[in-house]
């Protein structure tokens, strides 16, 4: 572990350089400990795969003192009174052709049938390693090796809200309509961002996420929208 002052009011806690469950667990535990013990002087804490960027209220403490407090806290084992909250999330996903905009590319790259792709994707449990890019966008791993595929060479200008995607060893869901370079394999009708929740995003660092395949009718009944803008954009590029 390495603790480094980045600016007059930010500090970075580094763990290892690896992306794995053990490192993610350390980040999750450290985040919980710091927020529980020093939350009164922490303005913001942004966890990633193997680090935490902390913004400090320098009107209440100085950076050197804060760094020493962080080091002392994180060098101690997690106490029983600071047991981590566990959160399991199940997301329904429709894998139909109207929304699986990159089904053909994924099948061609993997050599698998589409039914095999969807079965492999929704049989696994994924861990929330980081949240970023856009509010509610969670980086989930680890994706089965059989489904791993590089990012698209040409990103889409518009990925529909709720699109379920894969790239590298990760999978994710686009919380709102936005540009994106991941391969789209389905769509969820569930809204990932809710301004009425205490936590804006449905996801939490360290949470376990699984996907459940649903039918077209179930998707529609749950409020899912079948706009095909992304598909139209793909067809236009193919003809140009």
Structural overview:
This protein has 240 residues and is of the alpha+beta class. The chain has 2 domains: 2-82, Gyrase A, domain 2 (2-Layer Sandwich); 88-239, Cyclophilin-like (Cyclophilin). Helix content is 27%, strand content 28%. It has helices spanning 21-38, 63-74, 103-110, 114-123, 216-221, 229-239; strands at 2-5, 10-14, 42-47, 51-56, 88-94, 125-131, 138-141, 156-159, 163-167, 170-173, 178-180, 183-187, 208-214. It has a 4-stranded antiparallel beta sheet, covered by helices on one side.
Q: What's the layout of helices and strands?
A:
Elements (H helix, E strand, L loop, with lengths): L1 E4 L4 E5 L6 H18 L3 E6 L3 E6 L6 H12 L13 E7 L8 H8 L3 H10 L1 E7 L6 E4 L14 E4 L3 E5 L2 E4 L4 E3 L2 E5 L20 E7 L1 H6 L7 H11 L1
Provide the descriptors you would attach to this structure in a database record.
alpha+beta; Cyclophilin; single chain; Gyrase A, domain 2; 4-stranded mixed β-sheet; disordered C terminus; 2 domains; 240 residues; 4-stranded antiparallel β-sheet
């Amino acid at each position: 572990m390495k603790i480094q002052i980045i600016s007059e009011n930010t500090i970075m806690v580094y763990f290892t350089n690896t992306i794995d469950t053990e490192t993610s667990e350390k980040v999750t535990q450290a985040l919980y400990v710091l927020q529980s013990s020093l939350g009164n002087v922490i303005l913001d804490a942004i966890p990633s795969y193997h680090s935490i960027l902390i913004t400090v209220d320098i009107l209440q403490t100085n950076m050197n003192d804060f760094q020493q407090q962080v080091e002392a806290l994180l060098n101690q084992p997690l106490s029983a009174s600071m047991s981590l909250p566990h959160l399991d999330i199940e997301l329904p996903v429709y894998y139909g052709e109207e929304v699986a905009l990159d089904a053909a590319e994924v099948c061609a790259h993997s050599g698998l049938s589409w039914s095999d792709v969807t079965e492999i994707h929704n049989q696994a449990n994924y861990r929330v390693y980081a949240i970023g890019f856009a509010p509610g966008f969670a980086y989930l791993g680890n994706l089965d090796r059989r489904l791993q595929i590089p990012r698209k060479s040409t990103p889409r200008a518009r990925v529909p809200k709720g699109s379920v995607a894969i790239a590298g060893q990760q999978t994710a869901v686009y919380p709102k309509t936005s540009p994106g370079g991941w391969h789209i394999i389905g769509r969820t009708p569930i809204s990932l961002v809710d301004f009425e929740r205490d936590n804006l995003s449905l996801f939490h660092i360290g949470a376990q996420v699984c996907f459940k395949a649903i039918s077209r009718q179930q998707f529609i009944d749950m409020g899912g929208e079948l706009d095909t803008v992304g598909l139209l954009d793909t067809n236009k590029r193919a003809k140009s």
